[in-house]
Amino acid sequence: MADSKPFRVLPRITEQNEHFWRGGREGELRFLRCQRCGYWIHPPAPVCPECLSKDVAPEATSGRAVVHTYTVNEQPWIPTLDPPYVVAIVELPEQEGLRLTTNIVNCDPYEVRIGMQVRVTFEEYDDVWLPFFEPAGSAGGEGR
Ligand SMILES: [Zn+2]
Known about the structure:
By secondary structure, the protein is mainly beta. The protein has one helix and eight strands; from the N terminus they run αββββββββ.
């Protein structure tokens, strides 16, 4: 992890998305889930798109994911983010199509591959916990 955190544009916290942005406080990656049919809902919505139930509530996922696609950014598009860095879309095993755009951190950007197993890690900025992903089973973590 870097010595100093880069500046990040933080999301606006609402009642509907607070579980997502603050779940990292308890180390949990949370999404809304339909309590009737079990469908995971992301981005947050007040109604389940599968069964139209309004009985939706935040639940923790495993925090594991697979890299679906990614790009290595070598241009300093964001002045305070040092390139190269990896922007990726990861898919969670909980549900096909349950995907998240994130950064892959704590590894060489050129070692990231599609299909790579990753797990969530959080960085706190002003009471917001940004979910990033790091290689699963990397040094210092649990094995696979
Ligand atoms: Zn449902």
